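[stage:ingest] chain + small molecule (adenosine monophosphate)
[stage:ingest] validated
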Amino acid sequence: MNLTIPFDNTYVSLPENFYAKLSATKVSDPKVIAFNRQLSDLLGITQAEDEEIAEVFSGNVACDGSQPLAQLYAGHQFGQYNPQLGDGRALLLGETVGTDGVRRDIQLKGSGPTPFSRGADGRAWLGPVLREFVISEAMHSLNIPTTRALAAVLTGEKVVRDKVYPGAVLTRVAKSHLRVGTFQVFSERRDFKSLRKLLDYAIERHYPNANGPLGFLKCVIKEQATLIPKWMGIGFIHGVMNTDNCQIAGETIDYGPCAFIDEYHPMQVFSSIDQFGRYSFAKQPDIIVWNMAQLATALLPLESDADQAIKDFTIVVNNMQTQIRENWLKIFAAKIGISDPKPKDEWLIKELLTLMEKEKSDFTNTFFSLITGETQNLFSKPEDFKAWERKWKVRISKERKVPETLRKANPVLIPRNHRIEEMINAALKGDFSLFNRLLVAYRQPFEENPRFVDLKSAPNASEIVHSTFCGT
Ligand code: AMP
Ligand code: MG
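[stage:predict] done
[stage:export] tokens:
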């Protein structure tokens, strides 16, 4: 075996009630679909042949140093507390410290049942695996903190969902898989000894300067208050912001039903299971505050003076709105070329958004058109846009480096829903050329490349994707 992974595991040293140790379930005929060389180099993994990559990242062969385990967690799903979730179809193989000094988890997703599977098969089918691979890597190139995709492997087995599909395993890489729900599970069980151990572990791993539960809460809030406005800046709707999908290190995690806005509408929802729009585009800032309130609640028992802690935690959680708003303003101001926004710039931004909503303008192409000036086809009533444009030009005449600011803030390409669907349908027919093409195109989403002009277009009426599925 040439393939080696420099494992350096810490989670496995936590008490045994934090996880279940087990091996992946073997698969019959593993074949590599994709392997992310750049990421594998960062993790310190040695070069290897495709056969070995397939064996290791399907779970058939365990590399030296791997100590596979399924993590325990709980979480609020659509507001309802579920006391036990856990990795039902994932296995943490272990951790590595990358060439950049960052410790990361390497996790198989779709590797077979675990004690947390709750009757489900523990498998993943090809569609969601390719979806997460392309979108998470695109998010990384769009400068959004995210888990990443190291490998996608076909298992050679069938997975039964609404139909029978080819099975696949995704290897996900994350700063860690600690979630709000990891804290909730011990807190709700009143297992405060484990809760304390988890907090100490999370502080040491992610926020070494944080002081106690309150300091830790502040750090997590700061990261999440940075992340969510970044999502909004590229029109991203996560779709399933349950507390078990809310990561402590502040990376985007779980690409189940996520989608990107084409026509701008603040209440847009794609996920078929989000019936009441709890996780709609514009509600994401409120939901993240709600999730942080759940984290605060979970941490409370660790403070000796409960009354004082409730006061302190409430202030910190309430202050999150302001942080989000400030970050939102910075991001959206940059999208219209303003690098040092004043509070009243919010009006100028909101006026454009209102116009876009009325006109059903394409989110990405409208902002990109501010760079090129090609707004002809975006507004049915160009006079309204022209009126906004005049005010905008006056405002940016006081700014420096407007073109640079616009370029950095406005991608030309995003992983549009219809392109992702098209890619999955082709792959189901055995054609992976679109998958590979999207991977290349989305590596440089801020650059106009004549090879990928077709990927700029909004979907036509027959191409529009109206809903997305969790894809489990
Ligand atoms: P998710 O929707 O991916 O956030 O998953 C929610 C929970 O359902 C997690 O505990 C998953 O491990 C579990 N789960 C989802 N799909 C499967 C599956 N096919 N087999 C077993 N558990 C699953
Ligand atoms: Mg999840």
